[in-house]
């Protein structure tokens, strides 16, 4: 007997630049990617505000569930509740669990994503009616992908948090914020939730190029923090599953899959691991590649990273596919 997939009617997304399809285009921040060469491999070759050469992981997850090939940004006036009913992203590049992180680049704080979500719920009830909307929300997959910026853009860059918290205590502080966010989603009717752990953030090209002393190797200290954070997050997920009746909460962990690509690039058809496709040569001076960059590679599929901080479309696809076939199988 053939099993019917696509029980998930919508993918609803919260987080940072890993899952922001263009919300930052609509706010006053320097952290945008709505210019070439971003998006050069996206539909129509258009920059959308996705921090990649093409689609991001959540687009592929939506497609894998048979819903639609791209998830629209909530703040983009081109879209309305008809578009958002089958999937929407509230994510903002540069944000974190910690409010102090979103302040760094004046982006949308994590709590504000929840405010937008409540507004979306109201619009959805107006569009579908109360009962259908409530059922729709309980069946929709809520995805959260956030946390790297709390460490790389905040904790390790500015003295404020690191003088207040040890790394261990800061992790606990962030996990508390994550847990409360999940409880709030649950109280608003969400039942299917996936939260992503941290990648091996010491291997991002931005970090490797600052590690000149060690031959631009990955910064192991940052990778250890990511692993430690992920373990705490997994423990919290286990506890929340016990605490909240009827919730299906999973943690998807990109750490080992991305590390596997970085350590065995040839297996995945990659040639370049340490530098970004859109880079400025050896020193990646900024988070972004810029409009005039003469150093952009011709084939992004040979690179794991698109700019010094973000994966290429191909990497996003591999990570999404891996999550879909492992952690997210419970929602099929």
From TrEMBL:
InterPro entries tied to this protein: GDSL (IPR001087), GDSL_lipolytic_enzyme (IPR050592), SGNH_hydro_sf (IPR036514), SGNH_plant_lipase-like (IPR035669)
Record family assignment: Belongs to the 'GDSL' lipolytic enzyme family.
Entry protein name: GDSL esterase/lipase
Entry-linked Gene3D superfamilies: SGNH hydrolase
SUPFAM superfamilies: SGNH hydrolase
Pfam family, one: Lipase_GDSL
UniProt superkingdom: Eukaryota
GO MF annotation, one: hydrolase activity, acting on ester bonds
């Amino acid at each position: 007997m053939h099993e019917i997939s696509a029980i998930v009617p919508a993918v609803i997304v919260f987080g940072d630049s890993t899952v922001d399809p263009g919300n930052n285009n609509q706010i006053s921040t320097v952290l945008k990617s709505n210019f070439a060469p971003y998006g050069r491999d996206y539909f129509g070759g258009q920059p959308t505000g996705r921090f990649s050469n093409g689609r991001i992981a959540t687009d592929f997850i939506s497609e894998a569930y048979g819903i639609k090939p791209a998830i629209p940004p909530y703040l983009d006036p081109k879209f309305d509740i008809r578009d958002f009913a089958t999937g929407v992203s509230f994510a903002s590049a540069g944000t974190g669990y910690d409010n102090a992180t979103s302040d760094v680049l004046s982006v949308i704080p994590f709590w504000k994503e929840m405010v937008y979500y409540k507004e979306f719920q109201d619009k959805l009830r107006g569009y579908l009616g109360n009962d259908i909307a409530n059922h729709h929300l309980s069946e929709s997959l809520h995805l959260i992908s956030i946390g790297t910026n709390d460490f790389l853009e905040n904790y390790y860059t500015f003295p404020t948090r690191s003088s207040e918290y040890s790394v261990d205590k800061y992790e606990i502080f962030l996990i508390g914020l994550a847990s409360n966010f999940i409880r709030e989603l649950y109280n608003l009717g969400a039942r299917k939730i996936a939260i992503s752990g941290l990648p091996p953030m010491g291997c991002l090209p931005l970090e490797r190029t600052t590690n000149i002393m060690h031959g631009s190797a990955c910064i192991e200290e940052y990778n250890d923090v990511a692993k430690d954070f992920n373990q705490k997050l997994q423990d919290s997920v286990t506890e929340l599953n016990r605490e909240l009746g009827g919730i299906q909460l999973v943690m998807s962990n990109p750490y080992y899959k991305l590390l596997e690509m970085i350590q065995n690039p040839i297996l995945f058809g990659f040639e370049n691991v340490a530098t970004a496709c859109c880079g400025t040569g050896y020193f990646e001076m900024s988070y972004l590649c810029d409009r005039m960059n003469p150093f952009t590679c011709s084939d992004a599929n040979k690179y794991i990273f698109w700019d010094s901080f973000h994966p290429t479309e191909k990497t996003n696809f591999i990570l999404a596919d891996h999550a879909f076939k492992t952690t997210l199988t419970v929602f099929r």
